[in-house]
Amino acid sequence: MGIRILNGGFLTTVQDMGRYGSQETGMAVSGVMDTRAAALADILVGNDENEAVLEVTMMGPIMEFTEDELIAVTGGDLGAKVDGNPLPRYEAVLIKAGQTVSFGGMYGGSRAYVAFAGGLDVPVVMGSRSTNLKAKIGGIEGRKLGAGDEIGFRSPKTWLPNMAARKLLLPELSSREHTLRVVMGPQDDCFTEEGISTFLGSAYTISNEYDRMGCRMEGPVIAHKNGGDIITDGISFGAVQVPSHGNPIVMMADHQTTGGYTKIACVISVDLPELAQCMPGHTVRFKKIGIEEAQELYCQWRDYLKQLEKELNCPAEPASELQAVGLAAAVNEDRRYWGDHGTYRVVVNGTEFLVELKREIEQFR
Q1: What percent of the residues of the chain are helix, what percent strand, and what percent coil, each to the nearest 5?
Q2: Rounded to an integer, what distance in angstroms lies between the CA atom of residue 199 and that of residue 184?
Q3: I need a surface site. Which of 15, 105, 182, 278 has the fewest CB within 10 A?
Q4: Model pTM?
Q5: Measured distance CA(362)–CA(365) in Å, rounded
Q6: How deeply is 142 buried, as exposed, middle or buried, from its count of CB atoms within 10 A (0-12, 13-18, 19+)?
Q7: Residue 10 to residue 361: CA distance in whole angstroms
Q8: φ/ψ (deg, to 5) at 187
Q9: Does domain 177-301 have CATH number 2.40.100.10?
Q10: What tens digit of pLDDT does each residue of 111-144 get?
Q11: Phi, psi at residue 77, to the nearest 5°?
């Protein structure tokens, strides 16, 4: 079938890249907090990057697999294990039926992501499988996962092309100090020059009031010209609200669709994953950049994802006719066999195997 939840952990939900197209009705986008980690997890197991994953917050779940499946765990290091042994992160790993995956600590970052090859069998609600906890829709009955929940796999896989290459370098998550790049506006003209300088020149500490809706920070007061209230307008993921109390609040994945506080800036898309992995007590500084630079950084990230997906999913090319002639000649003249290297799918009695071949020389007797 899929997975059986034995313990749901602190906050484990089903999320994808979000529920777009319904904000005009008041429906939040939701989706994963760390879009970078979630996208990489999906690509590592051959999924579209918008496929639903499990978002694991701080203390992770315990889940038993009832069917063989390839998974990838990315994001924060929350002590992922399989049957009590360390489970590699940022790597496609085959989990067998009967094995148990658990999370046992917080060694860096605050959120981990688990992607399942072929996707989870979760209903699509308003174009997304994401869990909206406040509206109680999406995911599993619109709530966090708990003991006894079962989720099936839509199209489980035990092999993928280029398995040996489905491994990425682990990100550095040990820092407690972070610099987030921002594009100023849309209400930066509501702040004094001193207020702008304070915002860009001060360190802010992430408070305990940090959840999927927003990240409240504490530090030097950012001065307004005429208070922090405005006529309500739209809000985006990463918008930095500054109410009249003068401290910033960064809107996160479950942010409301509109709000009536001044927004001094917006954290750029490629830096939001770093904030998603922060913890209360970490310090943040804001750095101003132009919108053109922000767009260029985003385009570079998109290009990287496309290239990674292409490299991992490119099947091994069959030998050309010329290569085949050369192989035959080698066998006839030298009685030696040159095996073409690559990754191949082999089906034996209905069971699929992924075979990695390396170039070898074999002397015939």
Answers
A1: 20, 35, 45
A2: 11
A3: 105
A4: 0.86
A5: 9
A6: middle
A7: 54
A8: -115, 30
A9: yes
A10: 999 999 999 999 999 999 999 999 999 999 999 9
A11: -90, 95
Q: Give how far Cα 196 sits from Cα of 200, 227, 344, Å.
A: 6, 14, 58
Nearest to 37 by CA among 106, 95, 90: 90
Nearest partner of 128 among 28, 2, 238, judged by Cα: 28
Task: Tell me if 283 sits within 8 A of 176, measured CB to CB.
Answer: yes
**Amino acid (one-letter) located at 26:** G
Residues 76-110 have pLDDT tens digits of 999 999 999 999 999 999 999 999 999 998 999 99
Q: How confident is the model at residue 340 (pLDDT cuts 50, 70, 90)?
A: very low
CA–CA distance, 201 with 218 (Å, rounded to integer): 14
State both tokens at 120: 């989870």
Dist CA 190 CA 225 (whole Å): 6
**3-class secondary structure per residue, 87-131:** CCCCEEEEECCCCEEEECCCCEEEEEEEEECCCECCCCECCECCC
Three-class DSSP category at 291: helix
Q: How far is CA 184 from the centre of its chain?
A: 26
DSSP-derived 3-state class of residue 309: helix
Cα 130 from Cα 143, distance rounded (Å)? 10
| Burial (0-12, 13-18, 19+ Cβ within 10 Å), 342 | middle
| Pair of tokens at residue 53 | 């994953």
Residue 19 CA to residue 143 CA, distance in Å, equals: 16
- Non-local (6+) Cβ contacts of 187 within 8 A are 230, 262, 263, 264
**Residues whose CB is less than 8 angstroms from the CB of residue 219 and which lie 6 or more positions away in sequence, other chains included:** 202, 203, 204, 205, 247
Rg value, the chain, Cα: 24
- The DSSP symbol for 228 reads S
3-class secondary structure, 189: helix
Instruction: Give the domain ranges of the chain.
Output: 2-165, 177-301, 321-363
C-alpha distances out from residue 235 to 68, 132, 213, 252, 258, Å: 42, 17, 12, 10, 5
User: Could you give the maximum distance between any two Cα atoms of the chain, in Å?
Assistant: 91
Q: Tokens 């360390």: give the residue.
A: 86
